Amino acid sequence: MNKDASMMKPKLGLAACAMALACGCVSVAVNVPQPVEKRVFDLQGHRGARGLRPENTLAGFRYALELGVTTLELDCGVTKDGVVVVSHDRVLNPEHTRDAGGAFLAKPGPVVRDVAYAELRQFDVGRIRPGSDYATRFPEQQAVDGERIPRLADVFALVKKSGNRDVRFNIETKIDPTVPGQTAAPELFAAALIAAIRDAGMESRTSIQSFDWRTLVVARRLAPEIAIVALTDQQPDEDTMEIGKPGASAWLGGFDVDEHGGSVPRTVKALGATVWSPHALDLTPALVAEAHALGLAVVPWTVNETKDMEQAIALRIDGLITDYPDRLRALLESKGIAVPSRTR
Predict the structure, then answer these.
(1) How many Å apart are CA 260 and CA 270, to the nearest integer?
(2) Euclidean distance between CA atoms 112 and 114, whole angstroms
(3) Residue 344: which pLDDT band, with cuts at 50, 70 and 90?
(4) Residue 226 burial (CB < 10 Å; 0-12/13-18/19+)?
(5) Cβ atoms 312, 10 nearer than 8 A
(6) What is the C-alpha separation between 143 and 128, in angstroms, rounded?
(7) Collapsing DSSP states into helix, strand and coil, what is residue 206?
(8) Mean pLDDT of 213-234
(9) Are 235 and 282 spatial neighbours (Cβ–Cβ below 8 Å)?
(10) 98: three-class secondary structure by DSSP
(11) Of the chain's two ends, which shows fewer C-beta atoms within 10 Å, N or C?
């Protein structure tokens, strides 16, 4: 997820407020989503709590647990030596990455898949570069110097040690069909992620999400016990659905929205996902109703302003992904909506 759905369009404030369950809270072993009225709202901390602590770090996930979230949303990649690591960027980002000497990177790089995990561990991702666009966007983020890119296994271990037996993991495969050389191939990527999830015994608490549905198709085949989440984006600058264009979008793993009547929810259902996570600006009351009629939970991304959260909630969505789980939690409490326990 590369953008924030701020400045929500007026169409988002049309439906009455009735809550629903979290994207990953349904066990895929049952493989049937709960009825909408029985679902619990899914409060997802985006990259941990990106607005408040360094993204995709143990410090960020720890803080999200302390705030109290239903789900830890995070990103993953695979290193040269096959280690599944937690990182949004396929190529290390100079805006929040420093080298072993403490200097911010002068340019993007290296590519995660081209280095072994031991080398990747040398980089510090605990502070935003002052004066960067990133710093302007997230002025409340507190630096935690010395934070390293963690392994997915480290995140699972952190949660186990915390004693929290309920929080879920919504893990995005950071893979892009337009730059195939920057990541492992979809089959290898998905297989490595599934192995890490199974090694931790977290199959029932984890969902795998992606804009690149090729990894979801593989995950569905190799690990039907792990839920999959279809990420979609129909904004002009990053349209992964390509409705009305000849052939299937490269992002959709062979699925073509036009073959499903131009309906994104119907295409998501055909994929075998139990959750649809669209860009929040792509939602309308009619689309949410259509998704619910198909048994899909709807959990849009990434909503950060309280007024936009209110508009999204009015659509009867099932959860929200946010960089500010504290804001969403406060809003839910103000509406009398149940929130997850805090982890002390």
Answers:
(1) 9
(2) 5
(3) confident
(4) buried
(5) no
(6) 7
(7) strand
(8) 98
(9) yes
(10) strand
(11) C
Would you say 32 and 21 are in contact if contact means Cβ atoms under 8 Å apart? Answer: no
pLDDT digits (tens, 9 = 90+) for 240-277: 999 999 999 999 999 999 999 999 999 999 999 999 99
C-alpha R_g of the chain: 19
pLDDT at residue 222 greater than cutoff 60: yes
**Torsion angle, CA of 80/81/83/85, rounded to 10 degrees?**
-30
Tokens of 206: 């984890």
User: Quick check: 208 and 171 in contact, CB under 8 A?
Assistant: yes
pLDDT in tens, 308-336: 999 999 999 999 999 999 999 999 999 99
User: In Å, how far are 91, 93, 94, 144, 163 from 128, measured between CA atoms?
Assistant: 16, 10, 9, 10, 30
Q: Which amino acid is at 28?
A: V
List alpha helices for the chain, DSSP H: 58-67, 117-120, 133-137, 152-162, 186-199, 213-222, 264-271, 285-293, 306-313, 325-334
Residue range 175-211, pLDDT digits in tens: 999 999 999 999 999 999 999 999 999 999 999 999 9
Q: List the end-to-end C-alpha distance of the chain, in Å, as a whole number.
A: 29
CA distance 254 to 214: 8
> What are the C-alpha distances in Å from 283 to residues 10, 73, 235, 276?
11, 20, 11, 11
Name the DSSP class of 151: B
Residue tagged 């069909």 (tokens)? 177
The residues pairing with 209 across neighbouring beta strands, listed in sequence order, are 172, 229
- What is d(CA 326, CA 164) in angstroms, rounded to the nearest whole number? 18
Question: Residue 102 in 3-state DSSP?
Answer: coil
Residue found under tokens 């302390």? 66
Q: Which amino acid is at 291?
A: A
In tens, the pLDDT along 18-77 reads: 333 233 333 333 333 444 445 689 999 999 999 999 999 999 999 999 999 999 999 999
Residue with tokens 């990106």: 50
